[in-house]
């Protein structure tokens, strides 16, 4: 566990340095070198997560494990798409968060044991929820990149660099991610209503309510875009608002319970 965590943090840091040192260079960062370092980091991160989550007593879905799992999904996605997608601007944020999530995994190992083998339908709900949250968090990163590029264009500070993707390309990819995340979030809510008897009891009601509020935000965003069009600034606000609501839904109460009150 310690070796895997240390290896993941080391290679994430190497990838982070490789990206940031040439982020705004005319030729951009060396994508091949970044991908090699980040791929090794993702493998080590995955091994560390496997040891942390799958135990002899069941599956440990503690807060730090779930946060690290989400970061792993996001880092894995950005790593495999790097050769063909121009997402370099937000990559430093992704790898920096991954370093922190591995550190949390190592330094704060609380337990929240469950047994998904006894309830496969709940496992399906959890997987859908994690995939929806990861996709919509990646969309939030795209929204930040979209806002950054627009501001640079307005101030005429944009450099002709491979690290700077076209504005319309990022906007189109943002809506693709929002649609994917919205579908996954819809399925997550449906499976929650069908399979979870305690969705609105035992202090869990806020999760369902905040998740539904986020669903409404994304639904309005997509409706507005495909009817009258959505300005970039408005799309960014929708994306970050939805991501914020989901973060509060998924992690708000557990942060208080596991890290503050424990």
From TrEMBL:
Keywords, alphabetical: Membrane, Transmembrane, Transmembrane helix
Residues passing through the membrane, by range: 6-24, 33-54, 60-80, 87-108, 128-149, 174-196, 208-223, 235-253
Protein name, as recorded: Cytochrome c assembly protein
Top-rank taxon, per record: Bacteria
PANTHER family assigned to the protein according to its UniProt record, in alphabetical order: INNER MEMBRANE PROTEIN YPJD
Domain Cytochrome c assembly protein: 36-260
Organism expressing this protein natively: Shewanella ulleungensis
